[in-house]
Design goal:
Blueprint lengths: L1 H19 L11 E2 L7 E9 L4 H10 L5 E4 L10 H12 L3 E4 L12 H19 L1 E3 L1 E2 L8 H9 L3 E3 L3 E2 L8 H13 L5 E6 L3 H17 L3 E3 L1 H5 L4 E4 L12
Parallel strand pairs: 1-7, 2-3, 2-9, 2-10, 3-4, 6-7, 8-9
Antiparallel strand pairs: 5-11
Helix pairs in contact: 2-7, 4-5, 6-7
GO molecular function: hydrolase activity, acting on carbon-nitrogen (but not peptide) bonds; metal ion binding
Membrane topology: Lipid-anchor; GPI-anchor
GO cellular component, one term: side of membrane
Length: 251
């Protein structure tokens, strides 16, 4: 009787503990990169698009033999499935620039649940696969904000995280002169590499800052490449043909 009662109590305690204790089956953490690793390389990155200035940014990069990386949202400044915007995404991709995930609606991933994080991730990944055929291997968390749950989710999805070591400040609406000064100060330090954060949603970035920094960086001897190239990694998990739009391509 005593042994039976003891066993029952122990089983009850174990059941209560199991139901209360968090289960952590997802232990692998995605790598977070904040700097390039290949010497003399600079990665110019552009967040928060697709937006109105995307094609002009691509054209400026192309005219100067430079490559950029675009971290796209699905539904931030506009719906990625909008005919014009998805055309711009395809334009950047077709011109050899890297397309990557900035998640769906630019929510702070560190404040979300496991399911919410995955929802923010897969929806923009699906859009990029549909529009370009490329499954991104890179994700930039909105605001640069992440925790271990975000890293676990990224690992499950086969992605690495990438932030930056130079912030132009355009996302905080600093004057373009301040953004130029930040680049000037960084270049004056002669770092081996630079991983720069810009935002494609500002006309001053597209038409004033970008031509300026390209000239300055190239004059300093840097090659302007994609994030994947500056880290000597693959840009995509897989590449296939783009898909034909259907009725479910909407935000």
């Amino acid at each position: 009787m005593f042994k039976s009662l003891t066993a029952t109590l122990l089983a009850s305690i174990a059941l209560q503990y199991a139901s209360a204790a968090p289960l952590e089956p997802r232990q692998t953490l995605a790598t977070v990169y904040t700097a390039c690793t290949v010497p003399n390389k600079v990665a110019l990155t552009f967040d928060d698009g697709p937006y109105n200035y995307l094609n002009d940014i691509v054209n400026t990069l192309d005219a100067n033999g430079a490559k950029g990386t675009f971290f796209f949202n699905g539904n931030n400044w506009g719906c990625i499935y909008d005919t014009t915007l998805r055309g711009r995404v395809k334009y950047a991709y077709d011109h050899g620039h890297q397309v990557a995930s900035h998640t769906w609606a630019h929510r702070d991933l560190a404040t979300l649940t496991w399911d919410q994080i995955h929802d923010e991730m897969w929806r923009v990944e699906q859009a990029l696969i549909r529009i370009t055929g490329a499954n991104p291997a890179w994700m930039r968390p909105p605001y640069g904000s992440y925790n271990n749950l975000v890293r676990q989710a990224s690992a499950v999805r086969g992605q690495s995280l990438v932030n930056w070591d130079l912030d132009a400040g355009d996302g905080d609406n600093v004057p373009v002169a301040t953004s130029k000064s930040r680049y000037d100060s960084k270049i004056a330090q002669h770092p081996s590499t630079i991983l720069a954060l810009n935002h494609e949603t500002h006309s001053s970035t597209a038409y004033d800052l970008l031509p300026y920094v390209i000239q300055k960086l190239q004059a300093a001897g840097y090659q302007l490449v994609t994030v994947a190239e500056c880290l000597n990694k693959a840009p995509y998990q897989s590449v296939a043909a783009p898909q034909t739009p259907t009725a479910d391509w909407h935000c």
